[in-house]
Design brief:
This protein is mostly helical and about 150 residues long. It is built from 7 helices and 2 strands, in the order H-H-H-H-E-E-H-H-H. A hairpin with a 6-residue loop joins strand 1 and strand 2.
């Protein structure tokens, strides 16, 4: 763990920050992969690494393991599905900064086939602030945990 960090982003990276983690989740979400062999073939990931990541994901509740040995399926839980905006945001960044030939995939809304984007929105006024306008405010409990109580 990131000792001394009182940060949800740092804690999330402990769970899904390893190289293969979000690719496994992405393939479950968008390619419908549920079987060990599908993940291994689709990603070209070493079996020992895939075994470890899937076991960790099951343990922390991102995937649920179903079926008999040899026929095991890994399905995303609600906790795992909550990572969908993360995948979309990383993809958008990659499309802008790491895709010289243009976006290789577009995420769409099946109801109308429109393109799906991740957007910032203020929970109070519904405004869509510019990135430079977004600030971070440390919660009181987090401040006290990190710096001790104020006198």
């Amino acid at each position: 763990m990131y000792e001394g960090e009182v940060c949800s982003a740092a804690r999330t990276l402990e769970v899904v920050g390893e190289r293969w983690s979000l690719l496994i989740v992405r393939n479950a979400m968008f390619a419908g992969m549920t079987r060990f062999t599908e993940f291994q073939r689709g990603l070209g990931i070493a079996p020992n690494i895939l075994t470890k990541r899937l076991a960790e994901f099951v343990e922390i509740g991102i995937f649920e393991q179903r079926g008999a040995p040899g026929h095991t399926e890994y399905t995303l839980t609600d906790k795992g599905l909550d990572l969908k905006p993360v995948i979309l945001a990383l993809t958008a960044w990659g499309d802008r900064h790491a895709a010289p030939d243009g976006p290789p995939i577009t995420y769409r809304h099946p109801g109308c086939t429109g393109k799906v984007d991740v957007r910032l929105e203020c929970s109070d006024c519904d405004a869509t602030p510019e990135l430079a306008e977004v600030t971070a405010e440390l919660a009181q409990w987090a401040y006290e945990r990190k710096f001790g109580t104020a006198n």
